[in-house]
Design a protein that fits this description.
This protein is of the alpha+beta class and 366 residues long. It folds into three domains: 6-86, Alpha-Beta Plaits, CATH 3.30.70; 89-178, no CATH class; 187-361, 3-Layer(aba) Sandwich (Aminopeptidase), CATH 3.40.630. Helices cover 30% and strands 29% of the residues. It has helices at residues 20-30, 61-70, 89-102, 107-115, 163-178, 207-216, 219-226, 235-242, 288-302, 318-325; strands spanning 6-13, 34-43, 46-55, 74-80, 119-124, 135-139, 150-155, 187-190, 196-201, 248-254, 257-266, 272-279, 307-312, 330-335, 338-344. The strands form three sheets. It has an eight-stranded mixed β-sheet with strand order 8-9-10-11-12-13-15-14, with helices on both faces. Keywords: Acyltransferase, Transferase. Residues 125-151, 347-366 are annotated as: Disordered. Pfam families: Acetyltransf_1 (PF00583). GO terms for molecular function: acyltransferase activity, transferring groups other than amino-acyl groups. Residues 347-356 have a biased composition (Low complexity).
Length: 366
């Protein structure tokens, strides 16, 4: 049996009567649970009490729900929690706003923090105005053409968004709009030898440029990326490289050439995504892969992914070194004849603005 205490985040509806919350906390204490944090969220007709609880070893979420029900309450949501949930909410919101003002590419991550969302992703604006209670859209900008409109979509599976949380998200977007901070834009990158590149999302019109990228890469570089002998890329691959199912792609461009390509593909576990990089030979060792991996880690973090997983040949160390330069902790183990490189999506940006620039804005040095 697992003897490690588990930490849970509960949202509870209680009768508006003196001592109701105290009775719940006493019952939890009787089951050797420690209430680490408590906050009150106003909702129409009353309030929600949110508790962060460290449960006794072996105690299941159903046991916590039963304890709430035994005192006449209703548990409207429960999810696993970590130390980030113990941060004071106003402090976290201020730090998130500073992060978004500092780096427009971190807006999704900032929204996720402010709204306590599972994920926030930038998507084409939906014409469906009946979004469910567990999904909220915020327009990213006001483009001239409706077809180009994008929204930040916040989602949370374990509990509906309250009106207070929606208002917090809108307040952040209003602040950013007032300061002229728009949706993420292509980001300039300067290598150590002074070459300028642009880091941006991949798009359907990049097929020929990506095909040319592959043709300029050596067999060794392609083998490290695909673990197979590849010389040319079939046309049908190009669409999947640029528009992976459920995933995303970023490219680094110099003039009219795409010189690097990175991908994120969600894995079966909700907090992990597979990452892959391809950097043209003459651009390797100049910080392009570092910036690309940092940008992908930021996107994964905003989407609620805590881990990136890369698969490497046993003698390959490039991904581990790239992650180290990007300030991302790694761990490595052998699996099915390959190295499974686990990269934490936290790192330099997780410390907050002022400690480190976004990797895609750094002057590359490695």
């Amino acid at each position: 049996m697992d003897t490690t205490p588990k930490t849970w985040r509960l949202r509870v509806e209680l009768d508006d009567s003196p001592g109701a919350l105290a009775r719940v906390t006493v019952r939890l204490a009787d089951q050797d649970c420690n209430v680490l944090a408590l906050s009150v969220i106003p909702v129409p007709g009353g309030v929600l009490d949110e508790l962060v609880v460290q449960a006794a070893p072996g105690l299941l979420p159903a046991d916590l729900v039963a304890a709430v029900r035994a005192e006449g309450g209703r548990c409207v949501g429960i999810t696993a929690a970590d130390l980030h949930d113990l941060v004071d909410a106003p402090t976290a919101a201020l730090r998130a706003a500073a992060l978004a003002l500092h780096d427009p590419n971190a807006i999704a991550e900032a929204l996720r923090i402010v709204m306590a969302a599972d994920s926030v992703v930038l998507t084409p604006t939906s014409r469906d105005t009946t979004a469910p209670d567990r999904e909220v859209d915020f327009p990213a900008s006001s483009p001239a053409t409706p077809e180009a409109a994008q929204s930040y979509t916040a989602r949370r599976g374990w509990s509906s968004f309250t009106q207070v949380e929606r208002a917090r998200g809108q307040a952040l977007m209003d602040l950013l709009a007032a300061r002229g901070v728009a949706a993420p834009q292509p980001t300039a990158l300067l290598t150590d030898d002074g070459m300028a590149l642009v880091l941006r999302p991949g798009r359907a019109g990049d097929e020929d440029a990506v095909a040319d990228l592959h043709s300029r890469c050596s067999m060794g570089t392609l083998f490290h990326r695909y673990h197979a002998g590849v010389r040319t890329v079939p046309r049908r691959w190009l669409h999947r490289l640029l528009s992976p199912p459920r995933g995303s792609t970023a490219v680094a461009q110099c003039a009219d050439r795409v010189v690097a390509l990175g991908q994120l593909i969600p894995m079966s576990t909700p907090d992990s995504a597979e990452v892959s990089l391809l950097v043209e030979d003459e651009w390797q060792g100049r910080g392009v892969g570092t910036a690309l991996l940092g940008a992908l880690a930021g996107a994964a973090r905003a989407a609620g992914r805590r881990e990136l997983v890369g698969w490497c040949l046993p003698a390959e160390t490039g991904l581990v070194r790239t992650a180290a330069r990007a300030g991302l902790p790694t761990s490595v183990r052998r699996e099915d004849g390959l190295l499974r490189v686990s990269i934490a999506t936290g790192g330099a940006r997780a410390t907050g603005p002022g400690r480190a620039e976004s990797a895609s804005r750094q002057v590359a040095s490695g």
